[in-house]
Recover the amino acids of this structure.
């Protein structure tokens, strides 16, 4: 179902277009992903599991979980949550083990692109890194898998906290627009959308990455990208939780639902159970209420609410119950979510028999943390370690954001899960020092200022986890050198 009226958002959906789903003619809008257009048409089963053929739906909405893979114009395994819908597209469900394309693709050859700094990821960290490197006279290429720039900012409709330098008081969506405008106007920066970096190769003249760009006819153009240094800002993916039927269509990542509702104005259902009361769970719950959904309850395994008081208070005002020391026991339904059972847990996280409650819902959102997306950085040979406070595996880096692989920098959620203002500052630091590695003169006074602001942002109780993560990372860095 599409949202027609929203208290703060107006959806720029663009032109109406027709496409085919398993031969049936449907309509969508040119600024929507194929996945959003299907959900708007009531289609929630997108693929099947490999072994047991169980139905699978949309989960992450940002190209990270592969539960939405379909055949598009004959090409299998297209992640339809990061592919825009277009006039005449033929979209089909595929067998779990997809066959190769039935038609031969034109061999478009492999071209080589050269730049000073390659930036992988066009979220707040990558966009700030690109701008900072370009301001130091570096030629920059920025690459993103999605068909829009902005990363997770695109779905953040709430006003940011933090410092005015990192645009506090503005909504994430507006910050994304401002950064995108600056990027487009900067003639030192080239942007490649719908482009995935898939490989890293040793090179005598710096670094060499492999990149594939999806073209509108669904063929791919492959590039070698030669750069003097690179900033990897590939973000994070949402964590999953183990319970019976956790794979039913209708169990979504909270960020995935936020993308559907806030970016595309599409409602995935009517009644939601939110699992997790960190800031993501609380903020997304409030945004779903704003969009017209009913939030039946928020459950939190810890004995206290994880996110900011102000966000929890907004939910309480709407009468949403927040059950602490509770978890989701199971979800039930045939081909989609038809309800869930929650249960109280003791201090050893064991279920307390007799405390089960049935929740009448058609959507279950998991807001149980994020894990850094280390796939690309791990290809470079940078030292990767498990740091629980950083959210999982991260590349060890110094306070210039350089990894143990000289010339390879990280920034944002990939370097440790924190928040967007921190991602922007880390992006600026990485942009500055990647330009320096590329032989540019940079103003290091700026770097000291960025470090100072990072310290301020991490000073409060909500910055504690990030602070500990960075201390551990820096200790490991020293041990490596
Ligand atoms: C639901 C939710 C709510 C949040 N609320 C807040 C908030 O209120 N305030 C706040 O400050 N922060 C918030 N955050 C956190 C904030 O969004 C993140 O910290 C920030 O977006 C991280 O920025 P990033 O640039 O590191 O990653 P992202 O914004 O995730 O961007 C990464 C980009 O990299 C691209 N990419 C990944 N792999 C590849 C590849 N191989 N090739 C090419 N491109 C690739 C992706 O498509 C993506 O666009 C929230 C996050 C979520 C999920
Ligand atoms: S990859 Fe499309 S929903 Fe996760």
């Amino acid at each position: 179902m599409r949202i027609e009226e929203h208290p703060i958002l107006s959806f720029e959906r663009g032109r109406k277009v027709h496409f085919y789903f398993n031969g049936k003619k449907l309509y969508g809008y040119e600024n929507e992903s194929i996945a959003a257009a299907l959900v708007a048409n009531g289609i929630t089963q997108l693929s099947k599991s490999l072994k047991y053929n169980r139905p699978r739906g949309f989960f992450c909405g940002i190209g990270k979980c592969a539960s939405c893979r379909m055949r598009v114009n004959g090409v299998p395994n297209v992640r339809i949550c990061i592919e825009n819908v277009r006039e005449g597209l033929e979209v089909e469900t595929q067998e779990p083990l997809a066959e190769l394309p039935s038609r031969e693709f034109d061999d478009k050859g492999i071209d080589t692109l050269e730049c000073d700094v390659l930036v992988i990821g066009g979220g707040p960290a990558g966009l700030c890194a690109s701008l900072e490197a370009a301001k130091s006279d570096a030629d920059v290429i920025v690459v993103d898998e999605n068909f829009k720039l902005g990363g997770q900012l695109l779905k953040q409709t709430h006003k940011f906290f933090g410092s005015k330098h990192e645009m506090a008081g503005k909504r994430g969506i507006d910050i994304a627009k401002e950064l995108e405008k600056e990027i487009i106007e900067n003639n030192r920066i080239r942007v490649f959308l719908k482009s995935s970096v898939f490989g890293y190769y040793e090179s005598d003249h710096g670094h060499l990455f492999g990149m594939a760009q999806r073209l509108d006819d669904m063929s791919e153009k492959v590039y070698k990208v030669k750069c003097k240094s690179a900033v990897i800002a590939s973000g994070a993916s949402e964590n999953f939780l183990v319970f019976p039927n956790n794979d039913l269509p209708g169990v979504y990542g909270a960020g995935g639902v936020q993308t559907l509702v806030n970016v595309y104005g599409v409602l995935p259902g009517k009644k939601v159970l939110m699992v997790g009361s960190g800031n993501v769970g609380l903020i997304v719950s409030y945004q779903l209420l704003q969009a017209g959904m009913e939030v039946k309850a928020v459950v939190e395994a810890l004995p206290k609410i994880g996110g900011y008081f102000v966000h929890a208070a907004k939910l309480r005002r709407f009468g949403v119950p927040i059950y602490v020391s509770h978890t989701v026991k199971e979800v039930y339904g045939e081909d989609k979510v038809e309800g869930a059972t929650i249960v109280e847990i003791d201090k050893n996280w064991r279920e307390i028999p007799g405390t089960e409650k049935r929740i009448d819902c058609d959507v279950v959102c998991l807001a149980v943390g994020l894990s850094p997306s280390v796939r690309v950085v791990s290809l470079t040979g940078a030292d990767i370690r498990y740091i629980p406070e950083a959210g999982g595996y991260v590349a060890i880096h110094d306070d210039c954001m350089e990894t143990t692989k000289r010339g390879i920098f990280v920034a944002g959620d990939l370097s440790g899960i924190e928040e967007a203002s921190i991602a922007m500052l880390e992006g600026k630091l990485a942009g500055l020092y990647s330009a320096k590695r590329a032989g540019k003169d940079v103003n290091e006074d700026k770097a000291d200022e960025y470090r100072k602001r990072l310290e301020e942002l991490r000073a409060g109780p909500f910055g504690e986890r990030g602070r500990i993560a960075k201390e551990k990372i820096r200790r490991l860095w020293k041990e490596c050198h």
Summary: The chain has three domains: 16-104, 110-236+371-480, 251-370. The mean pLDDT is 93. The longest strand covers residues 220-232.
